[in-house]
Amino acid sequence: MKLTLPIETINLPSGTDLADRLRSMTDDEFYHFCQENPDVKFERDSNGNIEIMALTGGETGRRNTKLTSRLDIWSDETQRGLVFDSSTGFKLPNGADRSPDVAWVSQQQWNRLTPEQRRKFPPLCPEFLVELMSETDVLRMAEDKMREYIDNGCRLAWLIDPKAETARIYHADGSVQVVQGFDNVLSGENTLPGFTFNLSLLR
């Protein structure tokens, strides 16, 4: 679940024009804003609206770990790229700051970044990512975010709904494949050659 706060609606501390400050916040300022509030997960859309993401429950955290650990094993074995968890923010080409539940970036794309860019929110869209829906997430909003990822350069993205036991697979050409049932195995296709994930691990 997320709460989107249009800048104009934020309650301001007395004597502080916080709305103007957030509206004009640079990438560095937003990064430090997030570091100064480590107990809260923020995202920012391309219009500058701050989105406060709810903390995950135990089941969602367990499932995130299953996904991240399996992908990390494949990544270590192939040395093709790097895996990031849900605490990592990425600056997308459209200006949004997003933190998918699981993300993979090729070594080639990572090597293009400066040390400073790597230390902060990497200015790129992961080539592969996963968003794991919680029980309170709204499907339409989750689908919009997946399309945003694809529009910004993601090559393969999985939107997984454990409650409905459904996975939606988004491709770079805009096509979406719906997989019903957690008895299925998802493939990393050409983006992650040889990587597979058994959805039954998320039950």
From TrEMBL:
What Pfam families does this protein's entry cite?
Uma2 (PF05685)
Q: Which InterPro entries match?
A: Nuclease_put_TT1808, Restrct_endonuc-II-like, Uma2
* Annotated coiled-coil segments of the chain: none
- Hydrolase in keyword set: yes
Q: Name one GO molecular function term.
A: endonuclease activity
**Which SUPFAM superfamilies does UniProt cross-reference here?**
Restriction endonuclease-like
Q: Answer whether the UniProt record assigns the keyword Nuclease to this protein.
A: yes
Task: Identify the domain of life.
Answer: Bacteria
Putative restriction endonuclease domain segment(s):
28-199
Kindly provide the name given to this protein in its UniProt entry.
Uma2 family endonuclease
Instruction: Record the organism.
Output: Larkinella rosea
